[in-house]
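Researcher: Next entry in the queue.
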Amino acid sequence: MSDTQPRDLTRELTRDPVHEQTVDGYGTVRVLPLDAHADAGTVHAWVSEERAAFWGMNGLTRDQVAEIYAHMDTLDTHHAFLLLKDAEPVGLLQTYDPRADRVGECYEVEPGDIGVHLLLAPAGGDGTRPGWSSALLGAVAGFVLLGLDRRRVVVDPDVRNEKAIARFLKQGFEAGEAVVLPEIDIPDVYLPEKHAQLAFLRREVAFPGDS
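Model: Structure for this entry, 211 residues:
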């Protein structure tokens, strides 16, 4: 972990998970509601890295990042979660209703769709974590498709991030169109235009026996 901020593991471990799943050969993945202030150090460290530039938070302070997620916590359409592998924070998950997001302007939203943004924690010293991406994506799919009873996941990674796109396709996602997410410039919220590659995962593909 590159996070240099202290974290309160006791608070993390006593926060009730909304999803828990044991992945063979990996460990137990737990999905916790993000605490905007308690988790600010961890999240700020992740979103400040150049590899996370597509999240639009490079250059923000820890307090600014906390404010963004505190505001998100007031919304019914957008939600943030901390992913833990056993007791270690390993990812940031955001879910949203595509009809309430700019991505909904770029494709035909179907009933039961849910949007997902996923940021994995930086790798360790050797830069390798075999099987981590697949394990976490599988747990996220279980949470959003089965736990939240949705029919299809939509993701919109940076069109230049070939590694992330390949990771989604390997997990069973089907590539959609490359689109331009429109700029948002309203009071307290500014999001620049983004070029993204849409991809979709249907519940019957991910979980044939539970569709």
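Model: The radius of gyration is 16 Å.
Researcher: Noted, moving on.
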